[in-house]
Target: Ubiquinol-cytochrome c reductase iron-sulfur subunit
Amino acid sequence: MSESDKYPAESGRRRFVKGVVGGAALAGVGATGAAAINSATQASGAGGGATQAYAIENTDGPAPRGMPQIPVAIDDEGYLKGVWPEVKTEKQGGISIQIAETENFKGSGVTYTSEWFQYCGVESYAGLEPDYDSENYFRVGSNPGYEWQSETYSEGDRLHVDDFSNYQTWTGGMGEAVGKGATGRWRSEDAEDIIPIQVIKSDRVMELAQQDPWIEASTQDGFIAWLNKCTHFCCVPQFKNEGSAKFGAENDVYCQCHQSVYDPYSLVQTLFVARPRPE
Model:
């Protein structure tokens, strides 16, 4: 993984640092205060404000919350996609704007919105525009996180279910066989800024899907995905990351910048201040 993939652009880092303290403070705020927080924190631009999202849980380190989940779909040919919310128009402050939001996503009772991903500078990425022209496939990036991806794919190839067939025995060279990981990008074709993602296939995901309506709706055949930007200072973590064993995180998602750790098999609701998309 190159230095540019590991560490965020300085401008994106500065944009995000401003919201770190506020985001951490929101961690214990109940939903009843969301409307008040919205009006107090919303900046100029489209959307933003207090947002409740499903995320893989942050279990250690300085990150203030988990990384937001991307619902997964598999097409008829076996290629993996990230589901994008329904695009619609609504008025905010008397102005008509486009938003991406799906209420009661697949009968889960959860409202899924692109605001889940509006942090760390990603809110300004072309791929976060509601009507960005994309087929929403998960594609291999220029520096894949795992050797097996470099051996199997070329940059821009779509991730395919068949390439995860050994998920029950794969370890990535460390820890236990708890699932097979892949890195990639999403909604980033022909865009200047890349939206990094991580995918895992695991029996644990299938087990969780039997117990929770949201997990059942947002995963498929044991595949789970999330936006792979650490909520601390915007670095790009990795499942079974090099160096993670030193911190007891060889079976988790580990951020090399400041040792934040995430559990990909613990999905929790988080409340944070989403940044508005630039007008």
